[in-house]
Write a structure and sequence with these properties.
With 315 residues, the protein is mainly alpha-helical. The protein has two domains: 4-125 and 226-314, no CATH class; 136-207, no CATH class. 55% of the residues lie in helices and 1% in strands. The chain has 14 helices and two strands. The protein has a two-stranded antiparallel sheet. A hairpin with a 2-residue loop joins strand 1 (240-241) and strand 2. The radius of gyration is 21 Å and the shape is globular. The two termini are 21 Å apart.
Length: 315
C-alpha cells in the first residue's frame, strides 16, 4: 500500500495541483500548488502574484506570461512578447492531453487561436500588441482603423468598437483597462489580421510596414485567421448533446487536427503544421513558430513547478 508521501508525489507528477493543495497540511506545498494551478488554468491575470514558496526562476517565467493589470504596470509581460505565453499554452495543451482533460485542452487551443494574429505582428510592432505602444501609423491620415461606423471598413461593428477603444484605453483607469482585456483585446488581434490580410478596401492603416515585410506578414496573418476556422478550433463550439455538452474523444481531436493540418497545408506557412515534431498534436508547435517567424516550443514551467513541489514533499 502506498504511503501518503508516495500519493502526494504522484499527484505532483500528474500536475494535480488543486487536489494536492487541498490535501497537504504543509502551507508551503499548498502555496506552491496554488501557483501551479493558476498556470494550469491559464489565469494570466494572477501569474505575477509573488510567493516565497516558489523559486524565483519559476516566478520570472510566470511573469513573462502575465497580462499587466494597469496601463503602466512594469514589466509588460505578455504585452512585451507573446512567445513565452505560447510556450506555456503548448505545455498546458500537452498536459491536458495526457490527463485526457480534453475540454480544457480545446479551450487552451481556442485561446491560442484568438491571439495568434498578434504573434504574427510581434516582429513588426516590436511588442505583442501593447495598447500603450501602438504605432502612430495605425491612425495616419486616410486610416479607417478605429473609426466607428465607416462602411468602407471590413471590420465588424464589434471590431470597430474594439479598435476604437484600443487606441485610447492606455489613458483609462485600471478598471477600464482590465475590462478592455476581458472583452475586446482578442477582437483587436483579429481586426489587425483583417487589415493586413483580407481587407477588400485597404486604407493607410498598414502603410507603416514596408511592402516586402508586409507581404510576409500578410501570409502569416491570413494563416492565423484560417487557424481560427479549422475543425480543431471549432470543437470549442460543439453543439449541446442530450442534457449536457459533448466532450470530444481523443480520436475526434486527432481527426479534427488532421483535417486542420490538411486545410492549413495549402499555404507555405501553414505547411509547418505537417511536421512531426513529437507534440501530442503533431506540428502544432512548428505551426505557431511559423506564424511567429520565431522559435516557439512548449515551456517547462509547469514541469518545474511539479518538480519543485515533489522536492518539498521529500523535505
Amino acid at each position: 500500500m502506498e504511503t501518503t508521501r508516495d500519493l502526494f508525489v504522484a499527484l505532483a507528477r500528474r500536475y494535480a495541483f488543486a487536489d494536492l493543495g487541498a490535501l497537504s497540511p504543509d502551507p508551503r506545498i499548498a502555496e506552491a500548488c496554488e501557483f501551479g494551478q493558476r498556470l494550469l488554468s491559464l489565469d494570466a491575470e494572477d501569474f505575477a502574484v509573488d510567493t516565497k514558496a516558489v523559486p524565483s526562476s519559476l516566478r520570472r517565467q510566470a511573469r513573462a506570461c502575465h497580462m499587466p493589470q494597469t496601463p503602466r504596470e512594469q514589466p509588460r509581460g505578455a504585452l512585451e512578447s507573446l512567445r513565452p505565453a505560447y510556450g506555456l499554452l503548448l505545455e498546458v495543451i500537452a498536459i491536458r492531453w495526457h490527463r485526457r482533460e480534453l475540454s480544457p485542452m480545446i479551450a487552451a487551443v481556442h485561446i491560442a487561436a484568438e491571439y495568434l494574429p498578434l504573434l504574427a505582428f510581434e516582429p513588426h510592432l516590436g511588442h505583442a500588441g501593447d495598447p500603450a505602444r501602438w504605432p502612430e501609423g495605425l491612425s495616419a491620415t486616410g486610416s479607417r482603423f478605429g473609426v466607428i461606423g465607416d462602411r468602407e471598413c471590413d471590420h465588424t461593428k464589434a471590431e470597430q468598437s474594439a479598435t476604437n477603444r484600443t487606441l485610447r484605453v492606455a489613458g483609462e483607469p485600471s478598471e477600464g483597462w482590465r475590462a478592455y482585456f476581458d472583452r475586446q483585446h482578442s477582437q483587436v488581434a483579429g481586426a489587425l489580421a483583417v487589415c493586413v490580410a483580407t481587407c477588400r478596401n485597404p486604407c493607410t492603416a498598414m502603410d507603416w510596414i514596408a511592402p516586402e515585410p508586409r507581404a510576409g506578414l500578410q501570409e502569416r496573418a491570413r494563416v492565423a485567421l484560417a487557424f481560427a476556422e479549422t475543425p480543431l478550433v471549432r470543437l470549442r463550439h460543439a453543439a449541446p448533446v442530450g442534457h449536457g455538452f459533448g466532450v470530444p474523444s481523443p480520436e475526434e481531436v486527432l481527426d479534427a487536427w488532421e483535417r486542420s493540418r490538411s486545410t492549413l497545408g495549402k499555404s507555405p506557412v501553414g505547411a509547418a503544421a505537417a511536421r512531426d515534431d513529437g507534440f501530442p498534436l503533431p506540428g502544432l508547435p512548428s505551426f505557431f513558430a511559423a506564424v511567429a517567424a520565431a522559435p516557439i516550443e512548449p515551456s517547462t514551467l509547469l514541469r518545474g513547478v511539479s518538480e519543485h513541489i515533489a522536492a518539498l514533499i521529500d523535505g
